[in-house]
Write a structure and sequence with these properties.
Shape: globular
Oligomer: single chain
Number of strands: 12
Largest sheet: 10 strands, mixed
Structural class: alpha/beta
Strand content: 15-25%
Distance between the termini: 14 Å
């Protein structure tokens, strides 16, 4: 097997952890007769410094021509004062949209060796924690219309639109239902349908999709209740599906209760085999360059890539 991998080492600890992951890939290739061809490209703060933009077109082109994309981390205080469209995180949003990666898969599992680091009581964790959050990745507030303006009275306003189309909800729900079938056949759909129109559409579409999966136990849950239930009884969850903003928050919460945010991988997938694989932690600039960042989340991300 020969695979082309676009490598975005990024900022902070990104280069360190990706370098370690490449060592693991090389050993896998050596052991099982595979070849991995790496092409380094820029995104994030390092791209801003080198090219003036967080996501150069060359990076998009190389990623589209590759079999997979491996990403370290982007961002840091050096670029925090830049306008939103020039911050490193804009590159992350841009690459997701350019590659049409609409499904973010984030597993959260309590590893026995980290049980003592979990902030929850043992009486809660003894029931286990092994769930997957399926997050819609290229819709909602992060990709909706946004506006900042000052009115005639000198009052400054800002707004972000949480917009979804029915087909966007349909396709992410099907990813989640298919995953639930492979696991415990239980799916919670997370929304805020008591307040938001976008969530009411989410609930309407998810219920339609559920009819095609009668073998999967399906339940709606409001996002505020889901946040509470994750720390009250995480063992009740198998697969959770939700929109972009809610998924961002809940997946970080779920990851932290495993004992370490720095141990969790993720996969961002679309309708083709091309995916982007990255740890969910940040660039940790305070320890960058010291070679003490734990690369396990990145190594687990390449495990998801190979799978």
């Amino acid at each position: 097997m020969n695979k082309k991998i676009a490598v975005i080492k990024g900022d902070g600890i990104g280069p360190e952890i990706v370098t370690e992951a490449e060592k693991v890939l090389n050993k896998i290739g050596e052991k099982y007769g595979h070849t991995f061809e790496y092409t380094d490209v820029l995104m994030g703060g390092c791209a801003l410094d080198a090219t003036g933009v967080p996501l150069p077109q060359e990076t998009i082109d190389v990623c589209l021509a590759s079999d997979s994309v491996l990403l370290g981390a982007v961002g840091g205080p050096k670029w925090d004062t830049l306008p939103g469209n020039l911050r490193p995180e804009a590159g992350l949003l841009g690459i997701r949209g350019a590659l049409k990666l609409f499904a973010n898969i984030r597993p959260a599992k309590l590893i026995p060796a980290l049980a003592s680091a979990c902030p929850l009581k043992e009486e809660i964790t003894k029931n286990g924690l092994d769930l997957v959050i399926v997050r819609e990745l290229i819709g909602g507030a992060y990709f909706g219309k946004r506006e900042t303006y000052t009115d005639e009275n000198g009052v400054k306003h800002a707004s972000d639109s949480m917009a979804y189309a029915d087909y966007e909800i349909d396709r992410i729900c099907r990813v989640a239902f298919d995953m639930a079938r492979k696991r415990g056949s239980k799916l919670h759909s997370i929304d805020k349908a008591n307040v938001l129109d976008s969530s009411r559409l989410w609930r309407e579409v998810s219920h339609k999709v559920a009819k095609d999966y009668p073998d999967v136990e399906f339940q709606d849950m409001l996002v505020d209740n889901a946040a509470m239930q994750l720390v009250r009884n995480p063992a009740q969850f198998d697969v959770m599906v939700t929109e972009n903003l809610f998924g961002d928050i809940l997946s970080d919460e779920a990851s932290m209760i495993t004992g370490s945010l720095g141990m969790i991988p993720s996969a961002s997938l679309g309708e083709t085999s091309l995916g982007l694989y990255e740890p969910i932690h940040g660039s940790a600039p305070d320890i960058a360059g010291q070679n003490k960042a734990n690369p396990i989340a990145t190594i687990l991300s390449i495990a998801m890539m190979l799978r």
